[in-house]
Write a structure and sequence with these properties.
By secondary structure, the chain is an alpha+beta fold. The protein has 2 domains: 67 residues, HSP40/DNAj peptide-binding domain, CATH 2.60.260; 61 residues, UreE, C-terminal domain (Alpha-Beta Plaits). It has 3 helices and 10 strands, in the order E-E-H-E-E-E-E-E-H-E-E-H-E. The strands form 2 sheets. Strands 2-6-5-1-4-3 form a 6-stranded mixed beta sheet. It is elongated, with a radius of gyration of 18 Å.
Length: 164
């Protein structure tokens, strides 16, 4: 199994690709498969959120490029910037991860939030697309606590099912 614990330089030439949903890109500990089918274990710093285009360094020297998978999302559109801003405010007030583009808000599919957005005056649809929500206002990482716990430090290969 390929083990990945660090990022590679942004200009490194990838030898492999890893396509993941946003939910999986937000996990710093993950056992999955490269697009080639090879098993891979991610053991990245806590709080890491992978973005499409990120390059990761495998323990064997290979570079793996992250690709955002198409997933079911809600898209809310309006040509009126004030309506989009109000909708973004209400979504942020609910701590919803949101991708912001001109005239468009994209979020994980949620019929309750979709109804709220319609009520705010946006045209709402469900589609499949890569999801790249905003990184956040506080350093680009989640706002939850980031201090290490003694039992959480150091690589634990047994988390991936192998023997350490």
């Amino acid at each position: 199994m390929l083990l990945i614990e660090t990022f590679a330089p942004a200009d490194a030439v990838p030898a492999e690709t890893l396509t993941l949903s946003f939910e999986l890109r937000a996990k710093c500990r993950l056992r999955t498969h490269l697009d080639s089918g090879e098993e891979v274990g991610l053991f990245l710093p806590r709080g890491t959120i992978l973005r499409s285009g990120d390059r990761l360094a495998g323990n064997d020297g290979r570079v793996v490029q992250v690709i955002a998978a198409a997933e079911t999302v809600t898209e809310a559109r309006s040509a009126d910037a004030l309506i989009v801003a109000r909708a973004a405010y209400h979504l942020g007030n609910r701590h919803v991860a949101v991708e912001v583009q001109p005239g468009l808000l994209r979020l994980a599919a949620d019929h309750v939030l979709a109804q709220m957005l319609v009520g705010l005056g946006l045209a709402v649809s469900e589609t499949r697309a890569p999801f790249e929500p905003e990184a956040g206002a506080y350093g680009g990482q989640p706002a939850h606590h980031t201090h290490a716990h003694a039992e959480e430090t150091g690589a634990k290969l047994h988390l991936f099912g192998g023997s350490a």
